[in-house]
Amino acid sequence: QVQLVESGGGLVQAGGSLRLSCTASGGIYNRNTMNWYRQAPGKPRDLVATITSGANTNYADSVKGRFTISRDNAKNTVYLQMNSLKPEDTAVYYCNTLLIWGQGTQVTVSS
């Protein structure tokens, strides 16, 4: 069974940092583009960052220069390093590949 499990969310003050992790099981990880999305209350789920199997990356304009997506293929894990966090980054963050979603991890940034 293919699963994605996120971790690393929490409460942080504005300007702080967090690193999210997403570990994949089921044998598909290394061939797939991996994505991080986020969803704030009452808002749609938005794409935050993408990393291809060849480690090419892409970011939403709102996080460029602050967030970094990376992957460790030996650990079947993708990371999202989030720096200079702002209150508007508060959301549930989801890991995704193909049609598979993780359970989400809450990130709360206080002002």
Topology:
Elements: E1 3-7, E2 10-13, E3 18-25, E4 34-39, E5 46-51, E6 57-59, E7 67-72, E8 77-82, E9 91-97, E10 100-101, E11 105-110
What does this structure look like?
The chain is mostly beta strands and 111 residues long. The protein is built from no helices and eleven strands. Strands 2, 4, 5, 6, 9, 10 and 11 form a seven-stranded mixed β-sheet that branches. A four-stranded antiparallel β-sheet has the order 1-3-8-7, with no helix packed on it.
Count the E strands. Answer: 11
The major pleated sheet works out as: 7 strands, mixed
Count of individual helical segments: 0
What sequence of helices (H) and strands (E) makes up the elements? EEEEEEEEEEE
Structural class: mainly beta
- Report the radius of gyration as a whole number of Å: 13 Å
Multimeric state of these chains?
Answer: single chain
Quick recap:
This protein is mostly beta strands and 111 residues long. It contains no helices and 11 strands.
Keywords:
4-stranded antiparallel β-sheet; 7-stranded mixed β-sheet; 111 residues; globular; mainly beta
